[in-house]
Amino acid sequence: MARPRRSHHIPIATVTRLPLYQRVLTEVLRAGQTTISSEELAVLAGVNAAKVRKDLSHLGTFGTRGTGYDPGYLVSQIDHCLGVDRDWPLAVVGVGNLGRALVNSEGFSTRGFRVAALFDVDPEVVGQVVGGMVVRHLDALDRWGTPEDLDASQAGGDPDLPGPARLEIGVIATPAEAAQDVADRLVAAGVGAILDFAPRGLRGPSDIVVRYVDLSMELQVMSFFQSRRHAAWEDRPVPVPVPVPVLGAAGQAGSSGAA
Amino acid sequence: MARPRRSHHIPIATVTRLPLYQRVLTEVLRAGQTTISSEELAVLAGVNAAKVRKDLSHLGTFGTRGTGYDPGYLVSQIDHCLGVDRDWPLAVVGVGNLGRALVNSEGFSTRGFRVAALFDVDPEVVGQVVGGMVVRHLDALDRWGTPEDLDASQAGGDPDLPGPARLEIGVIATPAEAAQDVADRLVAAGVGAILDFAPRGLRGPSDIVVRYVDLSMELQVMSFFQSRRHAAWEDRPVPVPVPVPVLGAAGQAGSSGAA
DNA sequence: CTGTGTGAACTCGTTCACAGCA
DNA sequence: TGCTGTGAACGAGTTCACACAG
């Protein structure tokens, strides 16, 4: 038991659920619970118990038969698998409302992501301190890590921040028109993964990993479901008075859940 | 040809790609292009041509063999399928950075979503005008549409706003602690679909459709890919100089694309 | 001859059911 | 006995390849 698995291929579908388990496990852990069954974890995460077991079995054999899993150990193993136990210096480009929301979000802080740099082009915004970080001009991204950059390095309020490290992940929170230019600069700066909030597909080297989050897409999917709801309503003889079960996510690959 | 299909069951995977096609088609249409092949649409959307054809065939037979599709007609058909041609009054709860970003986002306006109401509990925020809408106190949500609500109705700067209509879709952009309470109130107000940005699963009637968008989840998935990138690097004999192809999305169900 | 529309093959993910260990 | 771990069955979604319409 408790044997981590040598990098067996982990399905993407599983990966997208791991952060969800983390969230649940962290809560369970805070409640002082010392063991958890796949069934319990499943209910809390709003998925099926078999799925939980299969997902976890892809990382290794962490459970104790007849008992369940140790939440603490599970958390550390999932963290390791996701690489969240390492430090991935993050750059956020575009410090408008969305950028600020991201930097200040619970997710950024609670899951150990460290914002290493903020960039914008608006003179109003450049120089502002957001989340304890000075916003730099986008041009500074091009000379990130080079000697000329030293002047701006220690401008942040936090003295224990390390100097400019190689940026690993870039987050694009700019208007759509700027996205491609920003992506090019991020790639040039050595970023290997990009999370893009701008509704625009990106071109670039094929070894760069990109994920898109498009708010209006999500809304349009909601619109679809709402349409069907209304259509279904016309058929129903009685508008059934509802029970109070759990809300699973509507046709989503990763995110879902119920607590 | 051009025969819409009577509500055949449409796969969720297809639905999540339709907004992506819309985005591409709208650009193509703006460029004055009068016809588009599945191949071209596929490249622009960053997916496979067969997938495009299969997806579209689920809505009906809109193409002309030997020629391609009419972008304008396609847009209108997809809009209809998604229900975006109807009006779904939207409520956004939580007008912090994220809420503001959402309300002002291109997606909300360009895809025809109309924000019918904004709610918050912060006295600093209540009464502010955001995106041409007055922010109401959350308590006003409980009496939405009832006679007592009339006083606040015409407070917005925009005189051609219709009166309080039944809210159809709710967007939760509050801190996690508030999410469940807000969800309960939204459901009580008659909302049928909820888009939840708070990292917390929701309980409620099973006929309410919920989709979750969790920023930190996305980041953790990025972290996973970045880990594997680094791991792969150690094996590679040569850090290959990269070509410049298109960036597909990394293991995503819906969102993806390249323009 | 070009490009759609679609059955059929295939791949990936989910669920089942139970063997095996604590 | 109880719950994990997993092969095997199933189902959803993707890709292939080709018949057929313009």
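qc> The radius of gyration of chain A is 22 Å.
qc> done
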